[in-house]
Amino acid sequence: MDGNRRYAKKQNLPIAEGYSKGYDKMVELIYLCRTLDIVEFTIYAFSIGNFKRNKEEVDSLMNLARQKFKDLLEDKHNMFRPAFRKCAISAIASFCHPPRDEITHAIKDIIQGVKDNDILLEDINEDLITNCLYTYKSPNPDILIRTSGEIRLSDFLLWQISNTCIYFIKVLWPDISSWNLLSVIFYYQRYYSSLQKNRDNFLEPIIRNTRVSTYIDKLHNKRDMEIEKIYQSAIQSQK
């Protein structure tokens, strides 16, 4: 979702209004993805590095995100009404999620798992690392779109995009249109065969024993409980 601030400056709007327009664009594209039977849509909304911006801007963005995503979860946009349920979509917003930190945490968790005798050294492989990432329930992306003309990945999904079609577009996020998205999909279709061939070449059969499966479940149950504690603490602090 890159280009919200530049959009606001270009339109002589408050910075917060640029982010609000960016949220509206996200909702619009989720609708389109549902129509196209795209089942998962991941948005990089805010990084840890963005906290270096001035406090007023960060506070404004956090308040906006809190309200907008509350509206989304309460389905105020009617995206999950019965007429749409046959083409469900998982929309994931990534906040403060630096992948290098994610990979580091996965490695530390695996080391601890070996120390605790939950897994063995010979259990460590690419599949185990993948399943220790925060995105373990999601398939690797087919397409990554970077808006606003920036030709860099900004530390986004580094482990997951080794065989992903990457598309850089100069359009600012709030200005992106359905035609832009369709152009990206056509571009992906053009190179689908070669992408799939690369995936098949790197694909290895997954052999996961009961010990590893038990460890993965234990790890994510622990993380879920930690997230629940943080959530409950945040709720209590607002009372």
UniProtKB/TrEMBL annotation:
Q: Which GO terms describe its cellular component?
A: dehydrodolichyl diphosphate synthase complex; endoplasmic reticulum
Under catalytic activity, the entry for this protein gives: n isopentenyl diphosphate + (2E,6E)-farnesyl diphosphate = a di-trans,poly-cis-polyprenyl diphosphate + n diphosphate
Cited Gene3D superfamilies: Decaprenyl diphosphate synthase-like
Gene Ontology molecular-function annotations: ditrans,polycis-polyprenyl diphosphate synthase [(2E,6E)-farnesyl diphosphate specific] activity
Q: Which residues cross the membrane?
A: none
For biological process, the GO terms are:
polyprenol biosynthetic process
| EC identifiers of the protein | 2.5.1.87
Q: Does the keyword Chaperone apply?
A: no
Q: Which domain of life is it from?
A: Eukaryota
- Tell me which UniProt keywords the record has, alphabetically: Transferase
| Pfam families according to UniProt | Prenyltransf
Family label: Belongs to the UPP synthase family.
PANTHER family in alphabetical order: DEHYDRODOLICHYL DIPHOSPHATE SYNTHASE COMPLEX SUBUNIT DHDDS (PTHR10291:SF43), DEHYDRODOLICHYL DIPHOSPHATE SYNTHASE FAMILY MEMBER (PTHR10291)
Protein name according to UniProt: ditrans,polycis-polyprenyl diphosphate synthase [(2E,6E)-farnesyldiphosphate specific]
